[in-house]
Design a protein that fits this description.
The chain has eleven helices and eight strands. The protein is an alpha/beta fold. An eight-stranded parallel β-barrel has the order 1-2-3-4-5-6-7-8, surrounded by eight helices. Helix 6 packs parallel to helix 8 and helix 8 packs parallel to helix 9. The longest helix is centred in the middle third of the chain and has 17 residues. Bound molecules: 3-methyl-2-oxobutanoic acid (KIV).
Length: about 260
């Protein structure tokens, strides 16, 4: 029997130093391949607004979109833990956050929901987790706040911003978050946060010292229009998508990805 990855598994992996391999996933065919290739966590990201819908941001993604794609992934996924993104404006108040988190779990089959933000959303995180729904936080570059952030750029570069991010990370953990995504921040800051927190930290453009790595699956297959510094085309030299995904899992587990070239100072 296939044993399902749970938050306990992820915590054990963090404790033992085994790196956790995550990828985004949006449909049943990819989810099946990823699950069979040994990806530990599948993130149904609202990046689907960009890579599936062709938008420039994630801001037009709806709850209907997220429930639909989460259901496609969760119904075929036997081993990996499935995280579903709460889309823009779906958690404007703690009550709305709880209602929509319940929908992603009950209608979409998500194992965990992900919200972007720090102290400002801590009440929502506390309410959702108190009701028995697991939560992943998301700090650093937060695509749902792209307008306030002034574009897709590396975050937490100053000492003051790095300190604020660390405070937010602690607040999310105290509110009950079960793991945390750190996107596009200096590797040194991500390493400090990963060491400081008990919960697993999932990095994207955050260096090799995070407990886990995630990439947008279309980016790591070279399907996106531009190759981001923090990503790599794993399909190069491989005969199939399945082999490319297995190679990604192997490289994450063996600490070969991300390399210095994929990392920000
Ligand atoms: O939406 C997404 O795919 C994400 C990852 C980039 C972490 O949030």
């Amino acid at each position: 029997m296939i044993e399902k990855v749970t938050t306990t598994t992820l915590k054990q992996m963090k404790a033992s130093g085994e790196k956790i391999a995550c990828l985004t996933s949006y449909d049943a065919s990819f989810a099946r391949l990823q699950d069979e290739a040994g990806v530990d966590v599948l993130l149904v990201g609202d990046s689907l607004g960009m890579v599936l819908h062709g938008d420039d941001t994630t801001l037009n993604v709806t709850m209907t979109d997220m429930i639909y794609h989460t259901r496609l992934v969760s119904k075929v996924c036997q081993r990996a833990l499935v995280i579903s993104d709460m889309p823009y404006k779906s958690y404007s108040s703690p009550a709305q956050a709880l209602e929509n988190a319940k929908r992603l779990v009950n209608e979409g089959g998500a194992d965990m929901v992900k919200l972007e933000g720090g102290a400002k959303i801590s009440e929502s995180v506390a309410l959702i987790t108190q009701q028995g729904i697991e939560v992943c936080g998301h700090l650093g570059l937060m695509p749902q706040s792209i307008e306030e952030m002034g574009g897709y750029r590396v975050q937490a570069k100053t000492e003051e911003d790095a300190e604020k991010l660390k405070q937010d990370a602690l607040i999310l953990q105290q509110a009950g978050a079960n793991c945390l995504v750190l996107e596009c921040i200096p590797a040194k800051v991500a390493a400090e946060v990963s060491k400081m927190l008990d919960i697993p930290v999932i990095g994207i453009g955050a260096g090799s010292d995070c407990d886990a790595q995630v990439l947008v699956v279309y980016d790591m297959l070279g399907l996106s229009s531009k190759q981001m510094k923090f990503s790599k085309n794993f399909l190069t030299g491989k005969d199939s998508i399945s082999d490319a995904i297995k190679s990604y899992v192997e490289d994450v587990k063996n600490k070969l990805f991300p390399a210095a070239v994929h990392t920000y100072d």
